[in-house]
Amino acid sequence: MYEFHWKNYVTSDLLKKYCASDEVKPIIIRDSNVDLELNIGSLKSSPQPKHAFVSDSFESDKLEDLLFLFGLPKTATILFRDEKYSFVTLEYLDRYSKWWVEFLDKNKLKFNENYFDCDNYSDLFMVLFTLSSKRYEFPQKSQIACGTLIVETQETFAGIPAQTNSWHSLNIIWTDVGWFVIEPQNGVYISLGSYPNKKGIKAVIF
Question: What's the 3-state SS for 134-201?
């Protein structure tokens, strides 16, 4: 059983502002398939890319310091559900993003506001990216630092429109050159410092 590590987290303040019906829809819905088809237990996938390097473990306090250093607003909530995390290389993230897009296509995963929207994309990405550590030849003492961002979309990014008072979920990954934000609906990524909606980040959940 894991222990929650709360960092400036006030549940009532965050959740009372969140409304699922206000989640942002993409400007361009990926059009490789007509419908979303999910066969639980039989998702199609080529092997995830192998890691050439995964770092040693670092305390969650170190990650918090680095998030703020690389541009996370001080007003953002940070929630760590583990004590230690590792980082990967940016080169790996680049290879993985290509694998991820192929995975979406193979499984006909497409945005649907009723049952597969932005939070479902970010949850699935987070789980599978974390499991990619199994593709490293050495045993790991901590999980890869891949989290979920909850953000107010003030600027258009990666096909997701700017929309006042709207919430969006995407992912953030710790690499050897800093933090990167990735849009799990299409694999587009950018450094946290350059992410146009960084001032609108409300929460980071690991």
Answer: HHCCCCCCCEECEEEEEEECCCCECCECCCCCCEEEEEEEEECCEEEEEECCCCEEEEHHHCCCHHHE
